[in-house]
């Protein structure tokens, strides 16, 4: 099975190694992908630990756990990245993450900012962006790999 973040690696060889703490994410994109996977598997500890310390007071374990119970994350698409490589101190990743909440299908489209402090990438903040309009020939939001018109034609 591929990693939840969409990479063609097993979870344990991709995001799992960062979430477990055995390795630090080497880039802003790797951290972004691993944070998505942490939401998918419900790992509040990793989400709080990978959040910049200046932002931790505004995020609570309770609100994260409530979101885990109410949201099923379906797929992640990285749309662009800027900087955020090894040896750099800042980076941005634009992504869209598709989810289900009850019967609702939604998307989180964000341009996230990351900083690297003491060789550790941390999520700083992000700007919410307008939802993407998917065409019938786009890959389905659910992560099946099928075109939208074949998977969810409605």
From TrEMBL:
NCBIfam families assigned: PRK01617.1 (NF002449)
Species this chain originates from: Zhongshania antarctica
Protein name from the UniProt record: SEC-C motif-containing protein
InterPro entries with a match to the protein in the record: NTF2-like_dom_sf (IPR032710), SEC_C_motif (IPR004027), YchJ-like_M (IPR048469)
Domain YchJ-like middle NTF2-like: start-end pairs: 27-126
Domain of life where this protein originates: Bacteria
One Pfam family of this chain: YchJ_M-like
Taxonomic placement: Bacteria, Pseudomonadati, Pseudomonadota, Gammaproteobacteria, Cellvibrionales
